[in-house]
Amino acid sequence: MRRRLPRLVAGLLLGLTLLAAREPQLVPDVSQRHVEIRYSFTGAELLLFGAILYPDELSRARNADIVVVVRGPTRSIMVREKQKIGGIWVNAATMRYRSAPSFYSVASSRPLKDIVGERTAAIYELGVGNLQLSPASDEASTAATDRFEKGYIDLLTRNGLFQQEGRGVEITDGALYRAHIRLPAKVPVGHYSAETFLIRDGHIIAAAVRDIEISKTGFERFVAVAADHWPWTYGISAMLISLLSGWAAATLFRRL
What we know:
- The protein is an alpha+beta fold.
- The chain has 7 helices and 13 strands.
- It has a 6-stranded mixed sheet with strand order 2-13-12-4-7-9. A 4-stranded antiparallel sheet has the order 1-3-11-10, with no helix packed on it.
- α6 packs across α7 (231-255).
């Protein structure tokens, strides 16, 4: 019996390896791994592409869908709700979130509701409506939380920072795919992830991820670093520059 045990273990491992080999594999890539923001930056377009490797032709013959998700760095934010009081718009209620995405874009070969169930979409945060924000306080009511979340999502959607395209992925011959993701001019800097999901019969059967870095260069980088590391010096310098610019403009117009 002891002599058979290693053979049984080896046979089990071999069986698991063959079983894993029969699952499809994703080979993704992205057109730009590093995006640089300069003074003339007006936005960019990322091309997410790749191949689906099937273990056999029978598996390939079964149609599958692709969903790609590009996520930006998470951040702690304060969302303020404005109300009109006495004819003036003022900040009223507020809600702080410990973790909220600064950029989110999802594209799929078909509308998400047609290819994946609500539970799976919620677990993997597939779709703008399935983003899971983290309120800093648990005391807020469900109605208030939903209101602030919808307001935050609507604000970033209008600014092009939240995107969803139901037919944004093109699949060729069931094996090659490509998708275009638009980065607006105000895209935040930081570390991004490009996730690709292969979905069949409502289940995710393969996934892969690639990293993207967005950073500022030149004078923009110097300003950003100065504002982050020396906020007081940056603030005083900005104020002095504004005063000197105003004084120079006033002097010039006086002479004219």
